[in-house]
Design brief:
Helices cover 39% and strands 16% of the residues. The protein is α/β, with parallel strands linked by helices. The protein has a seven-stranded mixed β-sheet, sandwiched between helices. The longest helix is centred in the N-terminal third of the chain and has 19 residues. The protein is globular, with a radius of gyration of 16 Å. The termini are far apart. It comes from Symmachiella dynata.
């Protein structure tokens, strides 16, 4: 990861887009983890999602923040792979589990053990704008492996309309980020998933009804 180019990209490109063009609002920002290890879990509708969450951190803190992203998508060509790993600093996730020779969650576990703040999108892929899909259980396996690490739920709204899946043109739209209270491994996969889902849905319920 090239920390200098990464900081420059966020300072010159990403922050102006998020804060000026989109006017991103953040609710309960004081709940964000400021140091790792920690796991952030959020709903996912747009390529803007990871950038928006990373913008919540200062240049110094950004060195310790890494989003998890699909290797098969971001490693499609050399340029995109370089940008994803050196500028965005993704943790590549191999989604083809059946053919993988290595635990696909191993890079995530390694980042947590290095005290990184890991951003995860448990839906696994970008869904329809402003629709929350069923969460996959990979995050439960990660939390079970790290039961003392905080999991911070976040609900994001508007990014799916600002830059929907399959679109390349940014559309100015009101965007909000709601940060929830942290929680930890509950001791059982089903109850953990229920806890996470319930907390993100509760954050979604904080949205004024007329803005949907």
């Amino acid at each position: 990861m090239n920390h200098f180019l990464r900081a420059l990209f966020f300072l010159i490109v990403v922050r102006p887009i998020m804060l000026i063009i989109l006017g991103m609002n953040v609710r309960h920002a004081e709940r964000l983890p400021r140091s790792g290890p920690a796991v952030i879990v959020a709903n996912h509708n747009s390529h803007l999602d990871a950038l928006a969450l990373m913008t919540l951190y200062s240049t110094r803190e950004l060195r310790h923040v890494q989003p998890v992203a699909a290797a098969d998508y971001f490693f499609r060509n050399r340029l995109l792979k370089w940008f994803a790993t050196q500028i965005i600093g993704i943790i590549p996730l191999q989604r083809q589990v059946k053919t993988a020779r290595r635990d696909p969650l191993a890079p995530i576990n390694e980042a947590i053990e290095k005290n990184q703040i890991v951003i995860l999108f448990p839906e696994g892929t970008r869904g329809e704008p402003e629709q929350i899909e069923t969460f996959k259980t990979g995050v439960a396996h990660i939390s079970k492996r790290h039961p003392d690490v905080d999991v911070v739920p976040i609900f994001m709204h508007g990014f799916g309309k600002a830059l929907p899946r399959g679109e390349a043109l940014l559309v100015p739209f009101f965007c909000d980020v709601f940060v929830g209270e942290s929680f930890r491994w509950t001791g059982e996969r089903g109850s953990f998933m229920d806890e996470m889902t319930g907390r993100i849905e509760a954050l979604a319920g904080e949205m004024p009804a007329q803005t949907w």
